[in-house]
Amino acid sequence: MREVAVIGIGQTKVDEHWNKSLKELAGEAVLSAVHDAGLKQVDSLFVGNMMSASANNQQQLGAYIADWVGLRYAESFKLESACGSGSAAFRAALLAVSSGAIDSAVAVGVEKMTDSPGGEITSQLATAADADWELAQGVSFVALNALIMQRYLHEYGWTKRDFAPFSINAHANAVYNPYARFRKEITEKQYIEAGMVADPINLMDASAIGDGAAAVVLIPLERLTFNNAFPIIKIIGSAAATDSIAIHDRKDPLWLKAAEISSKKAYSQAGLTPEDIDLFELHDAFSIMAALSLEASGFAERGKGPSLGLSGDIKPTGKIPIATRGGLKARGHPVGATGMYQIVEVIQQLRWAAEGTQVEGAKIGMAQNIGGSGSNILTHILQRIN
Amino acid sequence: MREVAVIGIGQTKVDEHWNKSLKELAGEAVLSAVHDAGLKQVDSLFVGNMMSASANNQQQLGAYIADWVGLRYAESFKLESACGSGSAAFRAALLAVSSGAIDSAVAVGVEKMTDSPGGEITSQLATAADADWELAQGVSFVALNALIMQRYLHEYGWTKRDFAPFSINAHANAVYNPYARFRKEITEKQYIEAGMVADPINLMDASAIGDGAAAVVLIPLERLTFNNAFPIIKIIGSAAATDSIAIHDRKDPLWLKAAEISSKKAYSQAGLTPEDIDLFELHDAFSIMAALSLEASGFAERGKGPSLGLSGDIKPTGKIPIATRGGLKARGHPVGATGMYQIVEVIQQLRWAAEGTQVEGAKIGMAQNIGGSGSNILTHILQRIN
Known about the structure:
The structure is a homodimer.
Chain A: E1 4-11, H1 22-37, E2 44-48, H2 52-55, H3 61-68, E3 75-80, H4 85-99, E4 105-111, H5 121-125, H6 141-156, H7 164-174, H8 188-193, E5 196-198, E6 201-202, E7 212-220, E8 233-242, H9 257-270, E9 279-281, H10 287-296, H11 305-310, H12 327-331, H13 338-350, E10 364-371, E11 376-384
Parallel strand pairs in A: 2-3, 2-4, 9-10
Antiparallel strand pairs in A: 1-7, 1-8, 4-7, 5-6, 8-11, 10-11
């Protein structure tokens, strides 16, 4: 199993890109990643995307995007695991390169949601829930997360206000990220008074959808010269785990078992513990998910996730910085692209290029991407090695 | 790069399974493959599927099917490359196992098309074409293939009757396959007189959609004991290539460049030439595709594909048997499952268990799965090693 490095990154701003098609967005990210890597060509392309069939009338995104970026004839596929699609493409690219079958790969996550010919996006997003047991009851994805948050407040005695720091931190960090959708700070008052979506989740608990693409280039470490323009970033942990899609079918709906399994595997591969992680790009699609992710990944005890927000430990200067470039909440959440934005942002931090929100001396970063309400979770750990 | 063997196979009959859901079909195939392999558990699941988002209101098939077959918490993803999705899942599973990251995997292709809540299947299939340049003109997938066939007849001087042997052979072979949808022979007269779909493609040139699932189990060769119940089948060639999705954008619309590239790579990995292949499960979604696939893969000269049908060389007793269990034409074409049916059928042949259509002494079999009208093509070569 060859060791693999990430040598190029690229991304578009998350926005309502009504003037850009899906392939233009993906192309921008792929070509800037390849350029950033200093390569002329790569061998293969792995695409993460959730909803192009309905939102863009287009399947077969592997061939579609490969052709557009000048990789006609190259190997290329699409990976899908709902909002976890981005990092699924990253992991597939990693396995292909580490197997020795392929010598270089681009992984790109892309989603084009805001001017969809496929009708209402809320229904399209709901295909990540269980069609028979959840959709048939008429719940949306926000509603499912609201049920989880409601139960969490009841079970552990927190109030809604205790979740404010997750949103405030994400927005404060996004100010410095030119690729983020919402580049403005918010106050606790604004958090509390935001319009309710599905009680207790209001607009400031929920990430916004958007259009965007993010990409990285992977090559075997053995092909690297140490004259590269950028610090070398190695993938030292990669793991994925699933859980039941239907939330009622889990033994404990307040515990992200797939996050626990995949993070433990990744720690073990890297020979690390949570204390060694300098920053953690987690999947704050809803503020409750930030809390659950911190707990299941070993950064907080069960039921204690919000305390890391209240203590300031999640800030770039804190013990375990999260959402350092805005997170899903303020950078935006183009669903199939999100996992790749997280990886790109971890690399920016490890290159010490996260202007305005740099985690000082960051050497080890972790990204965790969640598909569905925790039904498919991937954890990756990256390390700066020079 | 570890060598990988296929040790278990499973499939459902291709049919209109109105009484079985997508996960029940996939489950049947997965569980029989795992049982056939003599395993109790596998580490991971790779799902090939094209249209569950629209046809079944369900994405996230990795977690969805993993949970259903008792693999909750295991790693699992969905791969999509239109009608090439099945073998894309197979290749992803192969790379994962050969990388050393995973010690056993099931690859399953599944499609549930015939009682879809998502509306007309022809439109859903058309998402494999180019939305901007093909769909916008109102062409269906059959129409695109009809344009190719029309051009082929014009260019090389064949008549429609010359394609009859592809369909006749497929139907003759399907008689012996209990998993095939159409188990009856057809005559040349029936072929000629069948109802026209899109001139010159009639009902006997076109494969039928259907519901079905097929699965195999992959493990590293090093884990095999030679006491296995079945002959050991090793994967000795695996390659994938893309082409433009829009057919008008290809230099030569009568040449499957991605088939040429992927088959040449697979031959080279296996150290073989087309003469060494004992049987070839090709992608006869339309009879014209059978001819083009034979040519691009080195079995016939350019423009000479139909001659292999006319000479009888494509029969189980011929020089290069194709569609030995009925092919897409008569076994049926549940699109995202087809690539896995092909692999399963190659393995049946190499186990010398293809009752009624056994290719005598078959040791080396090839499968080629096509996504779109040739925009994503995967070629696999398997060998019996004991």
